[in-house]
Amino acid sequence: MPYLTIALTKGRLAYKTLDLFEKVGITCKEARDKSSRKLIFTNEELGLRFFLAKANDVPTYVEYGAADIGISGKDTIMEEDRKLYEVMDLGFGRCRMCVCGPESAGEYLRHHELIRVATKYPNIAKDYFYNKKHQTVEIIKLNGSIELAPLVGLSEVIVDIVETGSTLRENGLMVLEEICPLSARVIVNQVSMKRENKRITRLVRDLKEVLTEEQS
Ligand code: PRP
Predict the structure, then answer these.
(1) How do residues 85-109 score in pLDDT, each as one tens digit?
(2) CA-CA distances (angstroms) from residue 179 to 96, 118, 124, 137?
(3) What's the CA-to-centroid distance between 170 and ligand 1, angstroms?
(4) Is 182 left (phi over 0), alpha (psi -120 to 50) or beta?
């Protein structure tokens, strides 16, 4: 039986995913070892292989079939816009994609002004401003600490993830518009979905069962 390969997002999301997998009897102790630099782990008994990848790369591995399954944030799935199936909401890693800025920037949004938008998510920002709001803006791609941009005058607003809201609060910024809710999702390669349908369907069903039990 060939391995079923699962791509995990390095970091907090990987640990939460491994917690959930343990509840359906899938263990991978090695992957939890924080001191290890190993990237691929196998569970011979179950015919499973896990690997850890950077968040933005998980949908790429899944689209090309290097991973049959991936666990990825909805933000990354939207931004990457890859050909794959999104089959399940895992319910953790909940946060929101928002347009944020100082209170005063609300006026620019209301009047559809030509403003600068800094973001790690240029595709999401473009889709929101151009296709949903029909507002022409200049999008500036950044790689992190996005909240800095309006503070130092790089942009009027940002498009970014808001979880607790403390980064915004501590920097005198606020949510001006909400784009969409986010959480961790299970994604599946389109060919694997046919070829490995039984195993994938069973895994998704087991995960759904555990989540439903936890909610009730
Ligand atoms: C994310 C996001 C915000 C922050 C939101 O950044 O970009 O900056 O978390 O969380 P909060 O609402 O709970 O304050 P992350 O820590 O991933 O790092 P980054 O700035 O490098 O993107």
Answers:
(1) 999 999 999 999 999 999 999 999 9
(2) 7, 15, 9, 16
(3) 12
(4) beta
